[in-house]
Write a structure and sequence with these properties.
L-fuculose-1-phosphate Aldolase, 7-stranded mixed β-sheet, two-stranded antiparallel sheet, 9 strands
């Protein structure tokens, strides 16, 4: 699992979605008690190795290690517990952050074929929730849980980044790639649909 975390990080770094040491990934190791492997803090995600992960508990605290997990580890654990996710991906792709800036009450997506790759049908109205940024993971977790819709495996954190989850890292990646496309479309066609012109 830890080697898989490193491979996925390298992929996202190449895409420019994990710049510097930003972003983090996690995968569930067991459910009872909840344990996740999460990337450690402060490591360049383009150079991360299988050794750069740590096991955390349901609160995001390291278990049996002096390694420092990502600052967002607590939110990863909360999402895994509430959503039943097997893996959680957090990146700083630009389109989700810009979309959250334009639609702070949630980004509405509909009539787009790519929604199928996100796990929804193209005719459905899908609202991607947006929460205010905070360094307090309990506060972010409460905001996530308050707006949680089990049909929508994503959360936008305003002026920060996006969380997407799935049964495993591959499904989470596919959902993230599709969501980034959807949000980029939404942002780039904003003037068309609002009647405003650049």
């Amino acid at each position: 699992m830890t080697a898989e975390l490193a491979r996925e990080c390298a992929r996202y770094a190449q895409m420019g979605w994990m710049r510097g040491t930003s972003g983090n990934l996690s995968v569930v190791l067991q459910r009872d008690p909840l344990r996740l492997a999460v990337t450690v803090s402060g490591v360049d995600k383009g150079e991360i190795t299988a050794a750069d992960s740590v096991v955390i508990d349901e609160n995001g605290d390291a278990v049996g290690s002096d390694k420092v997990p990502s600052a967002e580890a607590g939110l990863h654990a909360r999402i895994a517990r509430v959503a039943g996710a097997g893996a959680v991906v957090h990146v700083h792709a630009l389109a989700p952050v810009v979309a959250a800036e334009h639609w702070p009450n949630g980004v509405v997506l509909q009539d787009l074929e790519m929604l199928k790759g996100f796990g929804r049908q193209d005719h459905e109205e899908v609202v991607i929730p947006v929460v205010r940024n905070s360094q307090d993971m309990a506060e972010l977790g409460d905001a996530f849980e308050k707006g949680f819709d089990p049909r929508t495996p994503a959360l936008l954190v305003a002026r920060h980044g996006v969380y997407v989850w799935g049964a495993d890292l591959v499904q989470a990646r596919h959902r993230l790639e599709c969501l980034e496309w959807l949000l980029r479309f939404k942002v780039e066609t904003r003037d068309i649909f609002t009647g405003r012109h650049a």
